[in-house]
Amino acid sequence: MEQPLISIIVPVYNAENYLEDCVESLLQQSYKNIEFILVDDGSTDTSAEICDIYSRKDTRVTVIHKENEGQAEARNIGVQYSHGEFIGFADDDDTLEPEMFEILYKNMMEYNADISVCCRLYVEKERSFKRNTFSSGLIDGHTFVTNVLRGEGASGAVWDKLFKREILEKYRFPKGEQFEDYWVVLRAMCEYRKIYFDERALYKWIIRENSQSHKLTLRQIDSYYRIAEALIEYFIQYNMPEQIIQASQYNLFRVCNGMIGKILRVNALETSLLKKYVSLGYDAYKKIPQNYPMPAKQKIRGMIICVLYKCFRIHKGKHL
Predict the structure, then answer these.
(1) What is the pLDDT of residue 269?
(2) With a cut of 50, which residues of the chain have pLDDT below it?
(3) 41-58, pLDDT tens digit by residue?
(4) Which region holds residue 137: left if phi is over 0, alpha if psi is between -120 and 50, else beta?
(5) Can you tell me the distance from the alpha carbon of 43 to that of 55, in angstroms, rounded to the nearest whole number?
(6) pTM
(7) CB under 8 Å, gap of 24 or more: what pairs does 77-82 form?
């Protein structure tokens, strides 16, 4: 019996230096009934031409050229034009082990899972490591979501997962937002709760200084906050368990904390934005229950934010 079709969607934007490695790793997948949707999101380098070359070389490759609207909309377009019963993703500057989607599919079938997940290998300059959160096996979606929100190692990204098509048709990526996959994955896992996790590192997340996650502009920082805040509202609206609501509140604090560090690294003189996120971080920290378990370093950061918040208020008062 023929295997069902799997669609792999790759948003492509100005990745001429890495795109070939990514696509070659896709073409070497051991799962045979597979299609690859390369969505050129208005690239201004030679990425579009590289995509076209591969579409001429391999009939499994489809290329969509569109104006630049961001990664989220590129993923939505890819889902729209895909034909697979199951859908996976890859980033244009990463690579995959040849057996990745065959393993994810087999796990999904054997355990009747809604979403199949593998561990990812972090590759940064001359070192690589993986961060296993769970042992291989079935995991309840609420447990997985809580782990992601607490920053304990589970991934909220889409590229280390295989989804039933119905999930991606129901949950669209928010156009124009950063970290849009978290908005899809975490909500989906609260409804489609049968998750299978494979502890083998099958996806190589190659961390580059010029990658999207490392070159956030100060404007895009606001997008990251909006996603975290919207998740809290969503979990409350749909009566998610208290463990998820509290974890999402803690996550908002962690996001503010991270953004403060990012602002200081990008432009320490951006005092208005720094004050904004100190204030938001203070509010988020105060909403976390006092007995909520968190690492000591996060408690220390919370206290630092409280001190900064009070200093800014005192400084503001002197100028009234």
Answers:
(1) 63
(2) 213, 318-320
(3) 999 999 999 999 999 999
(4) left
(5) 17
(6) 0.93
(7) 77/39, 78/7, 78/9, 78/10, 78/11, 78/37, 78/39, 79/9, 79/168, 79/169, 79/172, 81/37, 82/7, 82/9, 82/35, 82/37, 82/165
